[in-house]
Amino acid sequence: VNPYFRTKDSADELQAAGIDVLCSPYANTNLDAPALPEEMYRICRDKRYHAVVDVGGDDQGAVALGRYTPELLEENSYDMFFVANAMRPLTRDPKDALEVMREIEAAGGIRFTGIINNANLATETDEEVVMAGERYCKTLSEISGLPHVLTSVDESLYDVLKGKIDNLFPLKLQKKYFL
Q: What phi and psi, each to the nearest 5 degrees, are found at residue 77?
């Protein structure tokens, strides 16, 4: 949705894996416009598709999602996860994160169904950063009433954290973005 949208950087790898990448025509430009392509309607209309939609972490991204809300609510077969990074300056406190969650829900006209812990400091992320995110997400879950559904970590931390965290999801991060 905005110039910081990084999935487009991985479009070739995702498409090679059989994953279609649909994104704003303005992705990776200096224009910040909450716009998604018309082709996005197929995620609601074609039941063969399962989609992951990354609309960013604020109400502006949710405005773009709002265009699809009526169809998503009618189908009533969606999950919308709040991806929480306890290390982000604007949401360092779970109460601040809850406020952002509510702003996103209001702007998009659709409710969250769960929380994902994505606590990270890029290449500085270690076990303690992720565990601090776990505590943060536990509190956010309690005050929001939403389940904490999983924790994402760089694959290099997976073995260290396996057994300490339920529903641990390893990610292969592209190091080229941390240079």
A: -135, 60
